[in-house]
Amino acid sequence: MLTTRFFNIPTQSFKSPFDELNRMRRFLDHLTQGSAYSSPFRSLSQSGVFPSINMTEDVDNYFIRAELPGIKAGNLDIQVEGKVLKLSGERKFSEEDENVQYHRREREAGTFSRAFTLPGDVNVDKVDAKMSNGILTITVPKAEAAKPKQITIS
Amino acid sequence: MTAAQELQVKEKQEVASPAEQTKPGIIFTPDVDIFETDRNITLLADMPGVAADDIEIDLRENILTVAGDVKPFEGADESDILVEFEIGKYHRQFTLSDKIDQGKIEANFEDGVLRLTLPKEEKAAPRKIAVKSA
Q: How far apart are CA B78 and CA A143, in angstroms?
């Protein structure tokens, strides 16, 4: 199990030998904490702006996903301008009875706004967004010029 | 009511020591609100990405377990550009101090939020006993 994990390194470019060392150190930290089942090579980017997003691409589209549980589609605002996508909204909770006694309060309500630049040119007219089980998926088609071209050798 | 505050990024908390897993994958602790009234205990849990069918709620001997399995929602032929959150299952357990009327538990899942209403077992209505003086 461990060895497979160890060699199953996601494709990453090692920028400097210290990256490699850091990675090794984190791997060892992970071992001593005993949670060897999760991948020790997670490298999450942190922007510090809500919501956290994952961006992926395939040949034709960019996909932007965010975890937004409890947010209705009507409380979300998505705007695309050029290569910049702006996502804002508000998370509201339904009012609970006043005389309830709280034991845990970990969920938070509030507003958010985030803008980010897409890596390539996009077709602004065909952006699609949908919410499913608290996951927002924005599909942004790439502009024809940004799509990879298959070149056949004659 | 004051103006809505700005939401801050909250890192998903990995479960520290669950029962050992046989399947690989990360398990997170869902954020919850728990509150109670005279009659009910209500639990709200944020479990984005879980489908309603994949939620497991189990209550035995005062231990309430809430778990949710997340089916991968990213396409197989997509490659990552930016990764800020991870996808994993959810698991959390609570010990309840009140007796719960198991037959009347209600669970509702909407927009990635589980709402669980646990009715307390009805106790005998308090009776006033009048003391007669002879």
A: 17
